[in-house]
């Protein structure tokens, strides 16, 4: 894979502390020509699902050979492995905890390597900050043209998130979850139009969404189509069914959030 100087960074670190700045300093020390771009540092703390969704929605819009550094790592210092993922025409660096699960599902060509070449790490390696000492150096060296094969051998037993896709109880009934509540309180579900194209057909069949003991039966095309404060479903820009409120936070209206169960029934 040819070298490119773009590195994106996605973390749950926030911007109040020094963590992201330290990672950028490590990268720029190795490659002063690196072009560092932040995707988000507001991933929900410890939420691998939120991190997985965030990077999956952003990476396709970057040029080929971009390196994507993702550090949502509640298992840092434990048994989880550091990995380098080649998927499509992009590289991803981060922990082997399922944070790249959507990418594994989407891309046809995927190679996952266990990073073992410790001489590329920043020494000494902290037990609690692999984002600085392991992942940032690897991302930087990739942009310097080091071949991915130099960092470790391929593995096939890499971690994948459970319940990435809905479970079909029958042809007319499916069980899913809320993947995340975004900044506006929209509840993004794991019901994708790839699995449920009915939601983008000219005539959507009658349906019911049940969440937290409440039922929703309306699908709108835009947020503005709903009455003020009305809670309804919409197909979001990411291609997933979302539960939203016009001018309000559906997450607050329904008292729901990431991980909550949803039942979809076509009637």
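Q: What amino acid sequence fits the structure above?
A:
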């Amino acid at each position: 894979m040819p070298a490119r100087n773009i590195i994106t960074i996605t973390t749950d670190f926030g911007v109040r502390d020094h963590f992201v700045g330290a990672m950028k300093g490590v990268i720029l020390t190795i490659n002063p020509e690196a072009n560092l771009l932040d995707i988000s540092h507001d991933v929900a703390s410890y939420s691998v699902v939120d991190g997985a969704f965030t990077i999956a929605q952003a990476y396709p819009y970057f040029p080929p050979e971009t390196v994507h550094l993702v550090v949502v790592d509640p298992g840092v210092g434990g048994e989880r492995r550091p990995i380098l993922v080649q998927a499509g025409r992009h590289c991803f660096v981060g922990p082997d905890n399922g944070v790249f699960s959507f990418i594994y599902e989407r891309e046809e060509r995927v190679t996952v390597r266990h990073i073992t070449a410790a001489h590329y790490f920043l020494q000494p390696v902290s037990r609690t900050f692999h984002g600085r000492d392991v992942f940032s150096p690897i991302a930087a060296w990739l942009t310097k043209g080091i071949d991915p094969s130099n960092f470790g051998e391929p593995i096939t037993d890499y971690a994948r998130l459970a319940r990435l896709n809905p479970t079909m109880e029958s042809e007319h009934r499916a069980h899913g979850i809320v993947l995340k509540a975004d900044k506006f309180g929209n509840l993004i579900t794991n019901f994708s139009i790839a699995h449920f194209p009915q939601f983008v057909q000219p005539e959507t069949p009658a349906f019911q969404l049940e969440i937290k003991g409440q039922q929703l039966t309306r699908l709108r095309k835009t947020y503005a189509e709903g009455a003020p404060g009305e809670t309804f479903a919409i197909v979001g820009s990411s291609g997933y069914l979302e539960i939203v409120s016009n001018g309000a936070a559906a997450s607050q209206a329904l008292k729901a959030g990431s991980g909550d169960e949803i039942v979809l029934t076509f009637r």
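Q: And what stands out in the fold?
A: The longest strand covers residues 173-181.
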